[in-house]
Amino acid sequence: MRDVSNRQISVAGLNPAWQKTLKLARLTKGAVNRANSVSYCAAGKGVNFTRGVKIWGNGTSAKVFQFSGGKTGKLLCNAMDAEGLKYRTVQVHAETRTCTTCLALDDKTITELIEPTEGLGRNAENEIFNLIFVELAPKSLLALCGTFPSGISSDFYTRVAVEAAKLNIAIFMDAVQYIGGALAAGVEILKVNDEEIKEIGGKKTVKASAMECMKKYPIKNIAVTAGADNAFLFTPSESYEYSIPPIRDIVNPIGAGDTVGAVMLAEICVGKNISDAFQTGLAAGSASCFSDLPAFFDAKTAIRIAGKIRRRKI
Q1: Consecutive H or E run containing 222
Q2: How many CB atoms are closer than 10 A to CB 91?
Q3: Residue 12's closest CA among 121, 154, 175, 195?
Q4: d(CA 187, CA 213)
Q5: pLDDT per residue over 84-122, tens digit each?
Q6: SS3 of 100, please?
Q7: First to last CA, the chain
Q8: How much of the chain exceeds pLDDT 90, in percent?
Q9: Sign of torsion, CA 177 66 257 150?
Q10: Distance between CA atoms of 298 and 238, rounded to whole angstroms?
Q11: pLDDT for 24-53, tens place per residue?
Q12: CA pair distance 276, 264, nearest whole angstrom
């Protein structure tokens, strides 16, 4: 890993959400469904990532750069202030999207409803690009998380990765759309799920797809999650498979992948090797599944789960 000794992570999380979580006795298609309870929080991949770093609390700092607009944008920022999450916001005319999670208690299914975001435009794109690089510290990590709103050009991540390479800033990427140019510019860690790595690599298996990606692009490390199934880590020298203990009584898995990346990078920032850091991140992601809301977890629970994960070289 590149030197990231200042223990700061800047997070490009351009598509935040005001998250609504409904608990229902059951969810029936084509019928009126009345919720037993409703909860709200700030969310989106960048926000979830920043929350994960803060909850882990190992001295690493994360700040998310995001767009915000309208009434839901104010709710988003107020909730982040209440949590103590660090952020920089570019104010836009478009209302921040609302995402709704429906938790059906009878069969434990989770249904996610995601609103579109109104198109923003080049001025907003340039403003957030400049804001990121004005505040980006030397020897820090830059995490590129998720999609970006409509109106942002498809080469945005490419622009960011090229500029970061000039400054010798390490890139962590948890995204799958419009990432080819960014991968070509060089990525320290690509963190995706099993279906996404097959989409990017174009092969039938996780390992073959990861090897193809590392052959095609200057990617140093690839971390692959697969929900409750085994996870994989591919590095320039070694590859590992991680067996995750079964998690009973899962409440809400939304944000678990974001938690994995957040805690993984937080551990790397304090000097942990990437294979150990990924194991800890996987444990935190599992722990987050016990919460109603995305990317909230108990650090002590994560530590217990980490001790039960089995890792082997492949």
Answers
A1: strand 219-225
A2: 12
A3: 175
A4: 11
A5: 999 999 999 999 999 999 999 999 899 999 998 888 989
A6: strand
A7: 21
A8: 91
A9: negative
A10: 31
A11: 999 999 999 999 999 999 999 999 999 999
A12: 8
- Contact between 285 and 245 under an 8 Å Cβ cutoff? The reply is no
Distance CA 170, CA 44 (A): 22
Single-letter amino acid code for the residue at 215: K
The 3 state secondary structure assigned to 197-215 is HHHHHCCCCHHHHHHHHHH
Of 215, 214, 44, which Cα lies nearest the Cα of 223?
Answer: 214
Q: Which residue has the tokens 């957040």?
A: 262
- The closest of 211, 242, 210, 212 to 227, measured between CA atoms, is 242
Per-residue pLDDT at 137? 85
CA-atom Rg of the chain in angstroms = 19
- Other C-beta atoms closer than 10 Å to the C-beta of 307 total 9
Sign of the CA dihedral running 270, 275, 279, 282: positive
What are 215's two structure tokens?
Answer: 């052959």
d(CA 52, CA 106): 29
Distances (CA, A) of 49 to 10, 151, 226: 10, 24, 18
Q: What is the distance between the alpha carbons of residues 52 and 69, in angstroms, rounded to a whole number? A: 24
What predicted TM-score, i.e. pTM, was given to this entire model?
A: 0.95
Report the DSSP pairing between strands 310-313 and 239-243: antiparallel
Residues present in the chain in total: 314
- Provide the token pair at 145: 């998380």
Share of the chain above pLDDT 70, in %: 98
> What is the reported pLDDT for 247?
85
Tell me the residue type at 68: S
